[in-house]
Amino acid sequence: MKTQEIKIELPSDIFLALNESENEIVKNIKISLALRLYFLQKLTIGKAAQFAGLSRYEFENVLAENNIPISNLTITDVINDTQKLK
Questions:
Q1: What is the DSSP string of the chain?
Q2: Residue pLDDT, tens place only, 35-56
Q3: Cβ–Cβ under 8 Å, residues 85 and 78
Q4: Which of 37, 57, 67, 70 ranks highest by number of CB atoms within 10 Å?
C-alpha cells in the first residue's frame, strides 16, 4: 500500500499536558480522525479501520466505546430494504 506523509505541528507543551509519547499521540490522532470520517460517512468501516491502523473488529470496539453506531442504516433504510425483498 502506497502511503503519503503529512506533517502536523503541535505546541510542545501539548506533549507535557497529555503525558504521552509522540507515537501514542499520533496513534490517538489517527483513531480520532478515522472515527470522525466514519461518522461523517466519508470512509467505510473497513477503510476507517485501515486508516486507524486497527483490525475491523478492533475498530468496531472503538466505535462502540465512543457510542458511534457500527451501521449507518436508518430505520427507513431497513424498511425500504425489507419491502424490496417482498
A1: -----------HHHHHHHT--HHHHHHHHHHHHHHHHHHTTSS-HHHHHHHHT--HHHHHHHHHHTT--S----HHHHHHHHHHH-
A2: 999 999 999 999 999 999 999 9
A3: no
A4: 37
